[in-house]
Write a structure and sequence with these properties.
eleven-stranded antiparallel sheet; alpha+beta; Thiol Ester Dehydrase, Chain A; globular; homodimer; 11 strands
Chain lengths: 241, 241
Amino acid sequence: MSAEFILDAVVPFADVDREQVMLLSRVGKLLQEAAIQHADMYGVGARDIAERGTSWVLNRLAVEILRYPRRDEPVRVQTWSTGVRGFKGFREFRVWSGEELVITGTSLWLWIDLRTRMLTRVPQELASLFPVGAGSPPYRPDIEKLRFAAPAEDAPTVPVSVRYSDFDANGHVNNTAFFDFLQTALVQSGRAAHPRRLELQFQREIPTGTTSVAVRLAPGDAGVAFAICGAEGSYAQGIVA
Amino acid sequence: MSAEFILDAVVPFADVDREQVMLLSRVGKLLQEAAIQHADMYGVGARDIAERGTSWVLNRLAVEILRYPRRDEPVRVQTWSTGVRGFKGFREFRVWSGEELVITGTSLWLWIDLRTRMLTRVPQELASLFPVGAGSPPYRPDIEKLRFAAPAEDAPTVPVSVRYSDFDANGHVNNTAFFDFLQTALVQSGRAAHPRRLELQFQREIPTGTTSVAVRLAPGDAGVAFAICGAEGSYAQGIVA
């Protein structure tokens, strides 16, 4: 039983932007794919999700993208759990291009009951099976404590339509769509398309039938604070730099 | 040298919608992927596109989706050219699930000079190399003559944001994004998400910097006429039924 999981991939044409580097949403998708495949090996991934009725849901993610991988570049995702505590799971990511570290990140996942949408304790038999890796120290050991200030209510917003295809087989807007909203708003507001640092917290689900979100952006000392908002409030907020 | 090309695939989680069947954009992507891989075998695909300076661009597509493939379903795409004439290339598609024909379609592609964006004759040495298949008769032998009436100017429209990720490595909005716009508009206007028949013509490119398109829909005798429009006029129009 291996404590870390390796996913090898080659960046396809469909995953790069007009600058020939990976789209932000595809970076998110790559990390998510590695996490799901690893979790699937221990019966806590996407497979059998309907039968099980419980799932990991991404709550916080902090990544540093040292370099955006290019089209046709072979990349290796290395991921491991740093522990499961109560209803929380902690997971590290490192993405390599050969010997070069290109992406490093830490994530916090919550274990929820899909029927009630409530947090629920990870069963001991699952938690104990899941191997804890002992790779390099966590990128953000404080992931659990990360808090983001909301951009001011009067900060400018970029509206982005929600598409039918944003809702996945579980009826939820996939995390990767949030990265699409964010990157669209960054570029439309005249900012760089490729932040080096991205940290965010998912706050609530986007309800089915939602046709648009507003991405609010406000520059500050530590970077650009953002919130992805709707009628119910903020669905996610964080910072890019 | 094989006159037809076979692409085997399994429908992934990320390609299905809340009804557990393939998204319209992913149906389009699957057909496109088979066409590109086949063309790549003869030096006229996506590979070396920059060096060559010429490319096939999809002009018309007519498909009948007898059944939308489901999550985890293994599908086989069978595609062949029915000829290259001047600057036009004709290509058939059949998608099978085991012995069951699930999608059938005909497409017309134009060979263009990427620098000037002008139509250009396919060089004889490329045209003669490309094998003409002799499978079942074409689904729409009249593809070249298909014309679509524009929905009335006063027909209702659904606005859909254009995202940064819609622009591909060549700086063009990928065809599959058009299917996303269309399916979003169908559902938002209270129509069925899964048309059985889709025919469309691509008319002009969506310029870089475009932030939104309007999908105009008007029901008629033969189905729902649609146009995907912007300031310059219509980018694509067609019919779903």
